[in-house]
Design a protein that fits this description.
Immunoglobulin-like, 3-stranded antiparallel β-sheet, 1 helix
């Protein structure tokens, strides 16, 4: 009789498998808390429990870094585009802003001229409807130039209409406005 190396119970000398714990006696000897499937080249593999979390943490950090890069890059490009648009809008001049009345309807019309050296797109004109004393009664806006753009030294017409049944509005102020 001999003792099982796993459960220390007595077993037959010729036994291939322990009848008490069920372990195979011809298999390589296990060390504590390590499964036979974890053995690599005869050396036990240590369990750390961090493998999954290291991968998950690495992937999560990578995703967050990518999102930050995209957002920062886009906002930087948008910011640079807005600066360029602001510089181009500074060269836009209002010409011939006038007010006309047809019954209860008012029409503010005029033109914008590109005095700069760059093509400009999406030029907004703000219209301030004012009383005879200069008090602002209402404001509105319209696009004088859309996606087609306005080339240097070119002009484009704009027109904005509104009702004024009380006849309070006596003058209009037009100015270029930024988005």
């Amino acid at each position: 009789m001999k003792k099982c190396p796993y459960c220390v119970e007595e077993i037959q000398d010729e036994a291939i498998k322990c009848r008490h714990c069920g372990e195979r006696l011809d298999a390589p000897k296990k060390t504590a808390n390590i499964e036979p499937s974890q053995e690599i080249w005869g050396k036990p593999k240590e369990k750390t429990g961090w493998g999954f979390w290291k991968i998950a943490l690495g992937v999560g950090c990578g995703v967050l870094l990518a999102i930050f890069a995209v957002l920062f890059g886009c906002s930087l490009l948008v910011g640079l585009g807005m600066v360029k648009q602001q510089e181009a809008l500074a060269a836009i001049e209002i010409e011939d802003c006038s007010l006309s009345r047809d019954g209860n309807w008012l029409t503010a019309e005029g033109s914008v001229r590109n005095g700069g050296s760059e093509n400009v797109e999406f030029v907004k004109v703000a219209v301030e409807w004012r009383s005879g004393l200069g008090r602002i009664i209402d404001t509105d806006w319209t696009y004088a130039v859309g996606a087609e753009g306005l080339a240097p030294r070119q002009s484009s017409q704009f027109k904005e209409r509104r009702q004024d049944p009380s006849h309070d509005i006596e003058r209009v102020v037009c100015r270029v406005m930024a988005d």
